[in-house]
Amino acid sequence: MVRRVRRLARRLYERVLEREVDGVPTHVAVIQDGNRRYARGKGEGTAAGHRAGARTAESVLSWCSELGIEELTLYTFSTENLNRPPEEREELFDLIENKLYEFADDDEVHDEQVRIRAIGQLDLLPQRVIDAVDYAERRTADYDDQYLNVALAYGGRAELLNAARDLCADVEAGDRAPEDIDVETIEDRLTERRARAVDLIIRTGGDERTSNFLPWHANGNEAAVFFCAPYWPEFSRVDLLRAIRTYQSRQKSWRRTRTDRALALLQAVGADRAVVSRLTEKVGEIPQADLDELDDVEPLSAD
């Protein structure tokens, strides 16, 4: 009886959250933490935790499709994971290889036209995993409705360092002038599979850190961050909706900040309502109380 009540309450809460969703992030990136702790809590081996986490990844991709999220990046295997015991690494490689083939042949992936891409230092992976990456990318290469980026042997600092070294070599060889290096140049060097700026990072498992994940694409875009307690295998649609609500709150706060800055500037120069109206189209709605306040502002004198 108690379980039924809890399930009902959770479904009702999920519906409430769905009604609160007003615009979703374009690109969500997830740090899938807690697989091993989940398995230990169940009295099982690490492989069982990773398998459960892989099933959650399938669900999250489906939820993102339903909600209209265009790009999902999963932090599947970091460069630090290469230091794990050999037997655990092999278990992970087996799982990654199998899941890439499964995703590539999945009917839902093709129905939703999901393009699968891998990012990271793929040359550090076993050839069998690289072959699975190639297969998944070839099978979905013509799609562009939704993107699934799988971060493998990935480390954010290493990615930035390699890009900087490549550009320095170009400058030293005379192939590029320093003043020609811009944001787009760096993004081109970060990965052959260019990703959108990250709007929302989600980390499961209770830790509140972003672990060297997509520093250029996330921090540069001032992405919202949502930390939650459930281990990755326990992550639910409710948790995803709560994360999106955090993103929306972050967006509203940022729009309000921009509005406040714009109003301060307008008040300083004594702008009239016509100017405010044009600015409103750019920064969002300005409350009537703030517009009324402008009527009492004296323009700055030429002195």
Automatic annotation (TrEMBL):
**What would be the name of the gene that encodes this protein?**
uppS
Q: Briefly, what is this protein's role?
A: Catalyzes the sequential condensation of isopentenyl diphosphate (IPP) with geranylgeranyl diphosphate (GGPP) to yield (2Z,6Z,10Z,14Z,18Z,22Z,26Z,30E,34E,38E)-undecaprenyl diphosphate (tritrans,heptacis-UPP). It is probably the precursor of glycosyl carrier lipids.
Q: Catalysed reaction(s)? A: geranylgeranyl diphosphate + 7 isopentenyl diphosphate = tri-trans,hepta-cis-undecaprenyl diphosphate + 7 diphosphate
Q: Which InterPro entries match?
A: UPP_synth-like, UPP_synth-like_CS, UPP_synth-like_sf
Requisite cofactors: Mg(2+)
Q: Could you give a GO molecular-function term held by this entry?
A: magnesium ion binding
| Superkingdom of origin organism | Archaea
Record carries keyword Magnesium = yes
Active-site residues, as the UniProt record annotates them: D33, N81
Binding residue positions for substrate:
G34, N35, R36, R37, H50, S78, T79, E80, R84, R203, R209, T210, S211
Check the record and name the NCBIfam families matching this protein.
uppS (TIGR00055)
Give the EC number.
2.5.1.89
Name listed for the protein in its UniProt record: Tritrans,polycis-undecaprenyl-diphosphate synthase (geranylgeranyl-diphosphate specific)
Explain how, and how many, cofactor molecules are bound. Binds 2 magnesium ions per subunit.
For this UniProt record, the keywords arranged alphabetically read as follows:
Magnesium, Metal-binding, Transferase
Task: Tell me the subunit arrangement.
Answer: Homodimer.
Specify the enzyme's EC class, one word. Answer: transferase
**Family named by the database record:** Belongs to the UPP synthase family.
Q: Record-annotated residues binding Mg(2+)?
A: D33, E222
